[in-house]
Specification:
about 120 residues, mainly alpha, Helicase, Ruva Protein, domain 3, about 45% helix
Amino acid sequence: MARIKNIELPNEKHICIGLTEIYGIGRSLALTICEDAKVESTKKVKDLTDEEITKLRKEVDKYVVEGDLRRDVQMSIKNKMEINCYEGIRHKKGLPVRGQRTSRNAKTRKGRGKVVANKKKVGK
């Protein structure tokens, strides 16, 4: 089993798909990494030689992935919250950040409906 950036890649998948298990690597970047490392992208992870794995590791090291990328993303979110920009305020309130409607959607971000006290109708 190949291990890159402390992530074990799944044996039964092609290398271009297996690389996407690493946070920050998508399909297009995985294909670019395979090209630069001169590794066939349709090869299965279990069929890789040690030499090919070291080539892939060197190529992946050129990009910001996994822990460093997660830290960068969290720091940028914290920075936005500190300077009270629009996105930071939305993050603080737990609302959608990228302009989505909230009147009828956004249940994932907003959570379950909150009960409002004393909202009974007055009847005769």
